[in-house]
Amino acid sequence: MEIVVLTMKASVIEMFLVLLVTGIHSNKETTKKVKRPKFTVPQINCDVKAGKIINPEFVVKCPAGCQDPRYHVYGTDIYASYSSVCGAAVHSGVLDNSGGKILVRKVAGQSGYKGSYSNGVQSLSLPRWRESFIVSEAKPQKGVTYPSALTYSSSKSPAAKAGETTKAYQKPSVPGTTAQPVTLIRVLRTTTAEATHTTTLSKPSPSAGSSTSSPRPQPMGQRSQELELWSTTVYTSSPSSAGTNPGIQRRDSPGAAFQKPAGAYVSLGFVPKEELSTQSSEPVSQGDPSCKIDLSFLIDGSASIGKRRFRIQKQFLADVAQALHIGPAGPLMGVVQYGDNPATHFNLKTHVSSRDLKTAIEKITQRGGLSNVGRAISFVTKNFFSKVNGNRGGAPNVAVVIVDGWPTDKVEEASRLARESGINIFFITIEGAVENEKQYVIEPNFANKAVCRTNGFYSLNVQSWFSLHKTVQPLVKRVCDTERLACSKTCFNSADIGFVIDGSSSVGTSNFRTVLQFVANLSKEFEISDTDTRIGAVQYTYEQRLEFGFDDYNTKPDILNAIKRVGYWSGGTSTGAAINYALEQLFKKSKPNKRKLMILITDGRSYDDVRIPAMVAHHKGVITYAIGVAWAAQDELEVIATHPAKDHSFFVDEFDNLYKSVPKIIQNICTEFNSQPRN
User: Polar residues compositional bias: what residue ranges (predicted)?
Assistant: First the structure.
């Protein structure tokens, strides 16, 4: 009996061991079957900009050929997100022109980006940008997961539906933590929307293991541990989509149950779904970065407008403020009212949201008096667009002038000075003079005389005050079209200026330093950067040499230092050969969209012929200013100078008087710039 029991125990133990071994073997087989998915590196084209990719950190593969100059790059080492990703990789030296894999990491925007030439790529300078990125070799950090598919921003697509949900994005995981997918909700806008719509957003159902309490709201502009707000672009949905998307209801439709989810960032571009029910019901919009302008409204407060029309004007301002999506990263707006004299109600930094701006507009009271529009424009030019009033420098300056009927003073000269200061002036004229009233108009056709172009882009004529509301969307579309704001280009920021300097023996060392100071004084007047005015210099005797080209220096301090370092050469005076040399070595490399200005300084008659070289310069569109000193031949100066010679040739009797001609030269350059055909 004892033997039987022992035998049974042995059998049980044997069965247990068999099952145990089988289980272990089964687990090993299961483990072998679970393979880690292979990471696929997304491939992008050369023209893809970092700002179009939402992911904060990613690995990509660039194709060959991204060294091409058409793929623009802005910055050095740290690049503006407006840059080509692959172009920046070549510029930084991480890749060559054959392409390859890179690691890209987004970082904060910079106050300035300096251009440079590196690895066959010329990067450009940029005053500021809202987001940056850095490029490194594709050596992913251990334990970090990078996306196999990139998430792109498509804010420019007018066909996108409101309420469209982007692909779930998973932030790279860090060892020891579990990264959860974050669904992003996008609400898009179209410029033709006349009413605001919203998308009904359902509250996400809590997942297993989630906390029952709501997470603490994250302040705007700060990053939470699990997710990040990537964009602060303002969007509203299209009216056309309201009929096709059941989740959208008209705010003003009869019986519409208008609901705004608690804390929903309807005014933001990309918002984590988890935060929709946890934020404050009054989110602070950062504004629409695609419409970053500094805007001044000049409203008519004259007695002739009447109280009812003044109220319509205020409602129009409020509607524009709503449509613009005001914010510190987008458009900013101030209001000046004019009558006998202009007065600022609030400047660019007083109100930084559409909601606050609308409240302030409602409190504006009518001043009365005449309709002195010219005086108001002069006031805005001198006082409004200053740093102390919130002018940001990098944003285009725009002034929208609303006129009831016609002005009681002249506007042409005041508008010209405003344009020379870089202000884009728009005129909205309402209920203009009829035939029997035109005799009272001080300045006929005043609107076309005031604006930058007479093609209808800068002026809107409204037949009745009761039709003014129809102008909201056309105006918003135009002021936000920064590519067409031609008046942002002024006589100070739109030229390639080449100085051609006489270094002959008759000048002498001391006088040559005076000439260089004259060149520096002229250069100081211009806004110098790679995208604004550029400066180059040639010195000549019998021979010629390039002191520095347009691409060599792109800041004012660098230009002034380069001028100071120019050494005196000494020799003969071959001015004709110098003009030919400047055309070939300087202006042949001028940018197509730049005005070409040659400023030639000489103290004597040329040993060679200047007529043919001067004609070639004029034929190539180079505007030539001839500055003669002491023994210079005035008849020769007039041949060199662009027609009319009286505006382009200057003569001083001695070198120490050169400085006196600087203001007149600058004035003539600007007058000529503003007298160009405005079609």
Answer: 148-157, 230-247
- Quick check: do 50-137 and 294-484 share a fold? no
How are strands ordered across the β-sheet holding 622-629? 544-548, 534-540, 495-502, 595-602, 622-629, 649-652
Write out pLDDT tens, residues 384-405. Answer: 998 899 988 778 899 999 999 9
Residue with tokens 């906390």: 211
d(CA 476, CA 460): 12
User: Quick check: 606 and 636 in contact, CB under 8 A?
Assistant: yes
Helix axes 662-674, 509-524, angle to 10 degrees: 40
User: For 317-372, what is each residue's pLDDT tens digit?
Assistant: 999 999 999 999 899 999 999 999 999 999 999 999 999 999 999 999 999 999 99
Q: Reply yes or no on whether the pLDDT at 195 is more than 70.
A: no
Report yes or no on whether pTM surpasses 0.90. no
CATH 3.40.50.410 for the 495-675 domain, yes or no: yes
Q: Is 43 left (phi over 0), alpha (psi -120 to 50) or beta?
A: beta
**CA 253/CA 198 separation, integer angstroms:** 13
Q: Is 183 exposed, middle or buried (0-12, 13-18, 19+ CB in 10 A)?
A: middle
Q: Which residues contact 214 (CB under 8 A, 6 or more apart)?
A: 277, 278
Q: At what angle do helices 472-479 and 306-324 cross, to 10 degrees?
A: 50
pLDDT at 271: 31
Please, which pLDDT band fits residue 176 given cuts at 50, 70 and 90? very low
Output the pLDDT for position 642: 95
Closest C-alpha among 390, 196, 428, 360 to residue 295: 390
**In 10 A of CB 1, how many CB atoms?**
5
Return the number of other C-beta atoms located less than 10 Å from residue 323's C-beta: 24
50-137 — its CATH code?
A: 2.170.130.20
Q: Hey, where are the domains in the chain?
A: 50-137, 294-484, 495-675
Q: Which two tokens stand for residue 127?
A: 């005053």
Helix ranges (DSSP H) in 421-463: 446-450
Query: What CA–CA distance (Å, rounded) separates 63 from 101?
Result: 9
Spatial contact of 304 and 408, defined as CB atoms under 8 Å apart: no
DSSP string, 259-325: ---TT--TTSSEEEGGGTTTS-SS------GGG--EEEEEEE--GGGHHHHHHHHHHHHHHHHHHHT
Token pair recorded at residue 591: 């940018």
Widest distance between CA atoms in the chain: 139
pLDDT over 70 (residue 8): no
Choices 3.30.1330.120, 3.40.50.410, 3.40.50.300, 3.20.20.70: CATH for 294-484? 3.40.50.410
Give the span between the Cα atoms of 161 and 168, in whole angstroms.
17
